[in-house]
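> example.struct
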């Protein structure tokens, strides 16, 4: 198997369960991550295509994990998104972006999503979006396709800072349905630096593992451009 792409995930409890996007995990036979200089493999336990969520687990148990806010986001609240954007071009460390909750629903009034203005790039998919209580209020999922909207003959336009995350209540129901217990504890966070200390240790870069043949087929379909690399690489 080769590394054909990457995304982001995060630990949700001390038992080693990891959440990411379905569109990240569904094209992989397994996923891998480099943690403290060692490569760990994670298997796919559950996929939710409708809500773009996936559940992973391996033998590794992380010491830190993120708590979930079961009631979800609040309109206008400050948030921070964690992830590993543009893995082929930027450094391998976790990146964070700040923003607010712009809307409590997504396209077509979809209440399973929230809209955020924190910058989201390819590679951010599956990363946690935290409030300033250190709780997950969303899972970074997608943004409006700028190229597609620019090529719209009727109303060409380049959207700015219009991104979406799977809402925490949707995530909570997904985890509950799969028998995964999580914590809802709040933290006292005074600034961005303190929030970064909470989110960083529990967020990990996920490398999608599959064959060269599958990679070639996926590249032709152009459905997973935010996950796939330009070429396969060996896992090191």
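> example.seq
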């Amino acid at each position: 198997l080769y590394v054909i792409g990457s995304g982001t995930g995060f630990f949700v409890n001390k038992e080693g369960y990891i959440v990411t996007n379905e569109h990240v995990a569904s094209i992989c036979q397994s996923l891998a991550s480099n943690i403290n200089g060692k490569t760990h493999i994670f298997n796919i336990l559950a996929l939710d295509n409708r809500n773009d969520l996936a559940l992973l687990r391996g033998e590794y148990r992380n010491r830190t994990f993120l708590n979930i806010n079961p009631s979800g986001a609040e309109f206008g609240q400050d948030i921070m998104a964690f992830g590993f954007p543009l893995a082929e071009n930027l450094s391998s460390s976790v990146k964070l972006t700040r923003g607010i909750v712009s809307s409590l629903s997504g396209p077509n009034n979809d209440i399973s999503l929230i809209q955020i203005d924190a910058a989201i790039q390819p590679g951010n998919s599956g990363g946690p979006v935290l409030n300033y209580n250190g709780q997950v209020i969303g899972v970074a999922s997608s943004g409006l396709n700028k190229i597609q909207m620019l090529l719209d003959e009727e109303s060409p336009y380049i959207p700015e800072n219009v991104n979406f995350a799977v809402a925490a209540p949707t995530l909570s129901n997904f985890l509950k349905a799969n028998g995964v217990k999580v914590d809802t504890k709040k933290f006292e966070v005074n600034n961005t630096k303190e929030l970064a200390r909470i989110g960083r240790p529990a967020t990990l870069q996920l490398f999608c593992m599959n064959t060269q043949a599958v990679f070639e087929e996926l590249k032709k379909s152009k459905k997973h451009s935010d996950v796939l690399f330009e070429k396969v690489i060996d896992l090191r």
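> remarks
The radius of gyration is 17 Å.
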